[in-house]
Design a protein that fits this description.
Strand order of the largest sheet: 3-4-8-6-9-7
Helix content: 25-40%
CATH architecture of the largest domain: 3-Layer(aba) Sandwich
Number of strands: 17
Largest sheet: 6 strands, mixed
Shape: elongated
Structural class: alpha/beta
């Protein structure tokens, strides 16, 4: 037997009976905006789970990611070529791992096909599975066939008739490539697993090669044994940020730090919903960090709160606060919570081109941060804007209008988290004088005036 690297077999069967083809990965055009999983082309959006069809489920991978769609697209492309070629084709993935007994098994199989024990003629829809996640060295004299479906993307053979059927029946990306080909298309007598299996893969089974779909813990173990600390750090970060499971909640509440995300979470909880503050509740999450698509949130209190990239929501609520009371709190936040300031600075710079460090420390940076963070949220089209001083009752009315059975009785409207501790220490808010408001730079003053006009506040710098 001759092999072409990890790409396939050469010289086992005549080319009229079997050709080889390698799975490649093109890049279908996919878009996703603001955590809501919009799509272009045939990627199925979340929710529901593409596996079980439920909005809430325990499936470990419940959302199709672009790499899975690209993988599927590569197999469809191969099927089109196989159908056009008129030749039986062996398909192997680029990280295939072949057992030493593969040549002997293929020779035995060839003889059994010639005896018509398996109909592998080009006009018969047929898929032969040669791979398995775990391969055991079994008695090679007992070659056997099994029609029960199993996943075998790493190594399988198809006829042109099977390839043609797979292309013609394709209705859109609602599953993975292995689910489509090995469960849906190779039903009944149209799919056969060859035992003993002869192939597995280096990424899923061995863990010695990086997976470009879902990163694997096994690969981290391999890197540790190799002493490759730089690659280990990079892959550890990739694994921690990788999303293979999405969560769906009705409400996402966002705002600038110190403008009421704690208040709104508490208000909605009092009304009868389960909305967590910087953690996920059954009905939603309230987190100022979820205003942006960041890979990590500095103060996530559970796995869901790490990144909104893994969250689908129905209604976005924006909290805003009177700058006259908010700015002193934000000045304190900027000074004593550098991670908060740096988080906002990075995303404001990325999305608006404005650098908070270009403004004077203290009031100006606080004002510009408040105004530009609100601008970022406003650009996403929030469904309700809650001025925390005035709109508690209106917010409850909004929730009721969306069909939620919540209490409209008077709530506890006292400020929440007003005496926030920074690393266990309480710091007083600075006093801001009228002269300091008047002495603001023009740029910060213009942003503040615009903020107040949009949200209905009296500007602290107004001369009227």
């Amino acid at each position: 037997m001759q092999t072409d690297g990890a790409t396939g077999f050469r010289g086992i069967w005549p080319s009229s009976e079997l050709q080889t083809s390698r799975s490649t990965t093109p890049s279908p055009r996919i878009t996703r905006r603001c955590g809501r999983c919009t799509t272009v082309g045939w990627l199925r959006p979340f929710p529901p789970c593409f596996r079980c069809g439920q909005v809430q489920c325990d499936c470990k991978n419940n959302v199709l990611i672009p790499a899975q769609v690209a993988n599927f697209a590569s197999y469809l492309d191969i099927c089109k070529k196989v159908a056009d070629s008129g030749k039986n084709t062996l398909i192997v993935e680029d990280d295939v791992w072949l057992q030493a007994w593969a040549p002997e098994i293929l020779k035995q199989l060839k003889r059994r096909i010639k005896k018509n024990e398996i109909n592998f003629s080009t006009d018969q829809p047929m898929l032969l599975r040669f791979g398995a996640p775990k391969v055991r060295d079994t008695d090679l004299e007992n070659l056997s066939f099994d029609h029960n479906p199993r996943m075998s993307n790493c190594c399988f053979a198809i006829t042109p008739a099977f390839a043609r059927k797979a292309v013609e029946r394709f209705q859109g990306g609602s599953t993975t490539s292995d689910g489509y080909f090995h469960l849906e298309m190779a039903e009944g007598r149209n799919g056969v697993t060859i035992y003993p299996t002869i192939a597995s893969d280096l990424s899923w089974n061995q863990g010695t090669l990086e997976s470009h779909i879902h990163p694997k813990e096994k690969y981290l173990v391999h890197l540790k044994t190799q002493g490759d600390t730089q690659q280990l750090d990079a892959q550890t970060a990739r694994l921690s940020r990788h999303i293979k499971r999405m969560f769906s909640r009705p409400f996402l509440c966002v705002g600038h730090p110190r403008t009421g995300t704690t208040f709104v979470a508490d208000l909605l909880t009092q009304a009868g919903l389960d909305v967590g503050h910087e953690k996920c509740g059954a009905d939603g999450i309230s987190s100022w960090m979820f205003a942006v698509d960041a890979p990590d949130s500095p103060w996530a209190r559970d796995d869901v709160a790490k990144t909104r990239r893994a969250l689908h929501w129905t209604y976005m609520i924006q909290t805003v606060r009177d700058p006259a009371t908010a700015i002193p709190s934000i000045i304190r936040e900027n000074e004593h919570a550098p991670a908060s300031y740096n988080f906002r600075r990075a995303h404001i710079l990325e999305q608006t081109g404005r650098d908070l460090d270009d403004f004077n420390p203290g009031m100006e940076r606080a004002i510009v941060s408040l105004c530009l963070w609100a601008e970022i949220i406003r650009g996403q089209g929030p469904d309700f804007v809650c001025r925390i001083e005035h709109d508690a009752e209106s917010l409850i009315g909004f929730v009721q209008s969306k069909g939620f059975d919540v209490s409209s009785q008077t709530q506890d409207l006292k400020p929440k988290n007003a005496d926030k501790l920074y690393k266990g220490v309480h710091y007083n808010k600075p006093e801001v004088s009228a002269d300091e408001w008047a002495q603001l730079g023009q740029d910060a003053k213009d942003l503040l005036e615009n903020y107040c006009e949009i949200y209905g506040y009296v500007s602290p710098v107004s001369t009227d």
